[in-house]
Amino acid sequence: MKPMTAISQLLFFCGAAGLLGTTIGCEEEEEPTEGDEQDASSSIDDVFAKTALKGGCAIKVAKTGKTSKTTGKGGACPTTVTGVLDALAADTNNVLHVYAVSEQADGAPGTKPDANTPYRFVVAVETKIGGTADKLFLSMLGSGEGVSDTFLEVMSFNAKKGVYAFYDLNDGKWIQEGDGSMVPTAALGADPAFRCLGCHTTGAPLMKELHDSWANWNSTWLSMADPGTQDRLFRRLFDQKERADDLELHIIEGTKASTKARVKKALKEKNLKPLMTQLLCDVGEPSLIASHMKSSQRLGTVSTFSSMLPSSILLNNLFKTPQTGTGPQDGMTDILAMNIPALGQVRVESASYVKALGTIKQKIGGQTGDAMFPMSSPEKSFADFQMIQELFEQKLVDKDVIADALMTDFTVSTFSSARCALADTLPKTWASADELRTKWAESLGSSDLRGAAGLKARLEKTDDFAAHEQALGTYVSACNTRSTSDKDGYALDLLKVMSQRRAEFKEHYEQVVESDWLIPTDNLGSTPGAIRLNGTTCAIENQSAPFIGE
């Protein structure tokens, strides 16, 4: 099989490294015997260690630098993809769910899959120990020629710690790279404690194409073309693939589980500020959202019939849970549930969108065209959304505080530098939403940051929720008016916003952009933080202009 090429569909775990593996035997000892035994034994007390590696298998715990062993003896200790899959499949308590993703396997003109087409497979495993399929994930690489049997990355939930452990293979030996307990409470901008956190900033599972468009995944929206290889491992995985619709649900539940542990840790440290920062700044890796009708031709002269405009291009999802092709966006609990009727009418004329693609000379994979699904652009990460939903559930923030904060620069749904800067004014900790409101308003009173005065006024006025709804309705209605009265200009402006969001995504999360087939490019020369849509007219303006409520 040819060497694996870098692929970008999903940087699910630690990232592709040149890992080789050979089978190793199991040791006699039943308990950890080397190094810091207490730490090591707690570190390997996770689903993967108790299922595929049960029986005295050696694991090097990178945190301690020591080698420990799983409980029991006589286990198979597999160190290949096939061996791990066989070990899991041999236990009738386990159910394996296989998912496939490839940016070039849609079968569109010019992209028919062949031996060089890259693939990633993800297996979510139901086990007796972990229960649902959100507690154990396996990730493997392949091409249209076959799947590497020596590359395997694992995320496995440790119920006692409430975090995921990250594993990979190195020279035929298992290494636990680290776990979610090592995520700094202040994760924004922190150096990763171990390399997997370079992508999994908050320690949660990551699916870049989360939330219903499932771009590039075998799913409701895409039946992945078969490259026709007879490689045994490829066929084993590809022929069992399921819809990524279901993987989304596993990722969401895994993120919820790991978020609870982060809140618990922050409460113990009396340091909630970094968690609330996830409302104002982009901490977790953003998701890529798109419309739900694949272009009939996406290279050369693009042809699309989709008029769908994902509402997260216009507004943060916490204002109102977006409607997707299969209903409300999964994972969102609609904690604000704002009444914004116009949001259900957002659209863009497909012909105007295609015309604008030509104007900006958009390319994908170096070729003229569009992403697999139109309107592809980043939205704020689910890890950030879930953190705020968890703080709300624990009554550490309320809907008025959330709305007041998000009304800062509200037409910039993600990557708002003005909103993020205000995170510095948050108090370190608090015991209730009312205490947060009082302390934060007091802190804002001595700040000269942009938007501080407006946010302070909103926090001190606890009956302005309806006013926020009205302001947002005015803005979205103006956008809807443009979608009919200025179809071409509106479509071009939206693409300018999306182009900037893509530039911002690359600036913040370059490590998860592994291929030029993931995000379109254009000739706009977009720079982060340059433009926004005006909050009254929905026309393009410079971000240096005052925003409503500043």
Report what the structure shows.
It is a single chain. With 550 residues, the protein is an alpha+beta fold. The chain folds into 2 domains: 37-250, no CATH class; 270-542, no CATH class. It contains 14 helices and 17 strands. The strands form 5 sheets. Strands 1, 2, 3, 4, 5, 6, 7, 8 and 9 form a 9-stranded mixed β-sheet that branches. The protein has a two-stranded antiparallel ribbon with strand order 10-15. A hairpin with a 4-residue loop joins strand 7 (153-158) and strand 8 (163-170). The chain is globular. 53% of the residues are buried.
Topology (SSEs and partners):
Blueprint (H helix, E strand, L loop, with lengths): L36 H7 L3 H4 L7 E4 L4 E4 L11 H9 L5 E7 L16 E9 L9 E8 L2 E2 L5 E6 L4 E8 L2 E7 L52 H7 L5 H26 L3 H8 L6 E3 L33 E2 L2 E2 L21 H10 L3 E2 L2 E2 L8 E3 L2 H12 L5 H8 L10 H5 L11 H12 L7 H9 L4 H21 L1 H23 L21 E3 L6 E3 L8
Parallel strand pairs: 1-9
Antiparallel strand pairs: 1-2, 3-4, 4-5, 5-6, 5-7, 7-8, 8-9, 10-15, 11-12, 13-14, 16-17
Helix pairs in contact: 5-8, 6-8, 7-14, 11-12, 13-14
